[in-house]
Amino acid sequence: LGDVYKRQHPPDVRHGIRSHAAKSARRRLPRHDPPAEDHHPLNRKEPAAMKILVVDDEHILRTRLKSVLEQSGLPLSAVFTAENALNAIECIEKEQPQIVITDIRMPIMSGLELATHIHTHYPQIKVILVTGYSDFEYARTAIQNNVFEYLLKPIDSENLIAVILRAQKEIESAEKNERLFKVFKEHFSDNLQSAR
Fold it and tell me: Is 109 or 7 the better-scoring residue by pLDDT?
């Protein structure tokens, strides 16, 4: 019976206790460490910091929107403001924001005219229109002309952040597709050079 017990219960696991030798042998087994983090640009997981431009001729609204954005916890590198569309165009040329939030009714140039200019010269920029209830149908027409979204006054902070997050996802998706295209283009170009 003793021999049977020994065969059925090797020394390293007898009485539910693993021997030191067995522990050492286990430690000597090959380790399967998790793979190192892939730093390939196509696999970037951290959201890139955004630049946002707020355009409104009302100082109070400009200031409030800027404050809401800066305290939102969104990944922002800068929030710019402009009191009219002409100043906004100058800021866009210099700072290249990813998102522009603009009121529709402004002197000199309306928000819709600004949106048209942005779409013509900077199609990658997402434009969010701010409008009063009376401008609602006007804003819906604008959406059909490549405006990303509209927000009704008074602006709800949570709704504003949700719209910006959605815009950010689209921007990041477009940037990833662009990087992917460049990688494939370089790959095929290298293969073509080798074939020659």
Answer: 109
